[in-house]
Amino acid sequence: MNLKIASADVSALTRSAQMSLILGAAGSLALTIYAGRHQHSVALLAMFVVWVLLPFVGLFASNRASPAAPASGRISLQIATVIICASSLLAYGTVALGPPHHNTAFIFIVFPAVSWLVIGVDLLIARKMSRARSSGS
Hints:
By secondary structure, the protein is mainly alpha-helical. The chain has helices spanning 7-35, 42-65, 71-97, 105-136.
């Protein structure tokens, strides 16, 4: 099945992914700092901030490099970007703004790792699709 996507739709998706990336990173940063507001170790809070922001840096770099990729790979990456950014705000917001828990740090440790896993799988699938198309052409 061959899907044709209008360039206006791709352009709107690109803008949505870019805006999601900015809002997701800024919101995640704010929620991480808010959740760690009672932490006395500035170094520990700084490490959490870096760890939480790393997937956004990876998404930014991948999206910057994606214009060289086939359209299907770019679209897949942009959809993953929107989903990861929205999910991160939901996950971090639920923990940071919800009632206090003993395991508050858990989501801030696990979610970035899961995000990297999703990014990696998405890039691998896009790469395989690109190779299959180029060999099948």
